[in-house]
Design goal:
- There is one protein chain.
- The chain is an alpha/beta fold.
- It has two domains: about 5-120 and about 305-330, Alpha-Beta Complex (Quinone Oxidoreductase, Chain A, domain 1), CATH 3.90.180.10; about 135-275, NAD(P)-binding Rossmann-like Domain (Rossmann fold, 3-Layer(aba) Sandwich), CATH 3.40.50.720.
- Helices cover about 30% and strands about 25% of the residues.
- The chain has eleven helices and 15 strands.
- The chain has helices spanning about 25-35, 50-55, 125-150, 165-175, 190-200, 205-210, 230-240, 260-265, 280-295, 295-305, 315-320, and strands at about 5-10, 20-25, 40-45, 70-80, 90-95, 110, 120, 160, 180-185, 200-205, 220-225, 240-250, 270-275, 305-310, 330.
- Helix 8 (about 260-265) links the parallel strand 12 (about 240-250) and strand 13 (about 270-275).
- Helix 2 packs across helix 11, helix 3 (about 125-150) crosses helix 4 (about 165-175) and helix 3 (about 125-150) packs across helix 9 (about 280-295).
- The longest helix is centred in the middle third of the chain and has 23 residues, at about 125-150.
- The protein is globular.
Length: about 325
């Protein structure tokens, strides 16, 4: 008997609006709409900002219709046509256009390409992996980029912008655990105690970075993780110490970079772009192994992750975009 499962189903109306609903699907739907070679029984997914945009239709995230959103998933292999995976293997997936150009993780089943899967470390169950999700995985890629470019704990302070977001919170915890002196930039001073509990040694007011500034400013940071972009990224670069490194991974303020080349040619500042969507498989595996080894359950819990059922994803997506959701959102796709 063919497997039946529930999924968040997105389709476009005649007026171009995105329609979202919970729909029961089956193996035949996976065969018709997906071209993967591994079927995964999904246990948990997440609700990221990009998923919120896809579900609400507030940004043209979805490139193919109909669509099952969800850029993250964790579960167990049901069947595989690829020798790299076998039935029963614990796996996870982040990015690769999932939920945008191919069906994603907000469903009880997913049919994906083997090369897009990562073996889930034994130290992480599916829920813990999704509590980390793309946010934690991206933060680890940023920390690895700083290391790869030679930033060491005794080089000086490391700044993390967007500190209250998922990437920022995980970046603070990861870097502090490795001995870096981390300073958090936030526009929510009431969260200072939480950020310091994660490992931040100091707090910088977001407004001091978010407005246009001088091309070169007082040198302070040996390294930085920026998930904000725009003027914030430009000011961070202007404040880097000679030879400092900025790992840039986001555009919460904007995707523009209205600045000067001065920090790069006069101070040797390095701007390291971090892409989590199409990162190489070996880099992903290394990142997840390090996440499993370095993030304890208490750290994951302190960052915070609410668990919701699949049907709640639609209303929660709107709340997420409105800034009414605090912390990570884990989706139990079978609830």
């Amino acid at each position: 008997m063919a497997s039946r499962f529930n999924a968040i189903w997105l389709e476009k109306s005649e007026t171009g609006a995105t329609l979202a609903a919970v729909r029961e699907l089956g193996d035949d739907d996976l065969q018709q709409h997906t071209d993967g070679n591994v079927v995964v029984r999904v246990e948990y997914s997440t609700l990221n900002y990009k998923d919120g945009l896809a579900i609400t239709g507030k940004s043209p995230v979805v490139r193919k219709w109909p669509m099952v959103p969800g850029i993250d998933l964790a579960g167990v292999v049901e069947s595989s046509e690829d020798p790299r995976f076998k039935r029963g293997d614990a796996v996870l997936l982040n990015g690769w256009g999932t939920g945008e150009t191919s069906w994603g993780g907000l469903a009880g089943r997913a049919r994906v390409k083997a090369e897009h899967l990562t073996a889930r470390p034994a130290a992480l169950d599916s829920r813990a992996a999704m509590a980390i999700g793309t946010a934690g995985y991206t933060a680890m890629l940023c920390a690895m980029a700083l290391e790869r470019h030679g930033v060491k704990p005794d080089d000086g302070e490391v700044l993390v912008t967007g500190a209250n977001g998922g990437v920022g919170s995980f970046a603070i915890a990861i870097l502090a655990a490795r001995g870096y002196r981390v300073v958090a930039s936030t526009g929510r001073p009431e969260e200072a105690a939480r950020l310091k509990a994660l490992g931040a040694s100091g707090i910088v007011e977001r407004a001091s970075l978010s407005e246009p500034g001088k091309p070169l400013q007082k040198e302070r940071w040996a390294g930085a993780v920026d998930s904000v972009g725009s003027h914030t990224l430009v000011n961070v670069c202007a404040q880097m110490r000679y030879g400092g490194v900025v790992a840039a991974c986001g555009l919460a303020q904007g995707m523009d970079m209205p600045g000067s080349v001065a920090p790069f040619i006069l101070r040797g500042v390095q701007l390291a772009g971090v892409d989590s969507v199409f990162a190489r498989p070996e880099l992903r595996t290394s990142a997840w192994q390090r996440l499993a080894a370095e993030l304890g359950a208490s750290t994951i819990a302190s960052i915070g992750a609410e668990t919701i059922g699949l049907a709640q994803s639609i209303e929660t997506a709107a709340a997420l975009l409105d800034g009414k959701v605090k912390g990570r959102v884990v989706v139990d796709v079978n609830a």
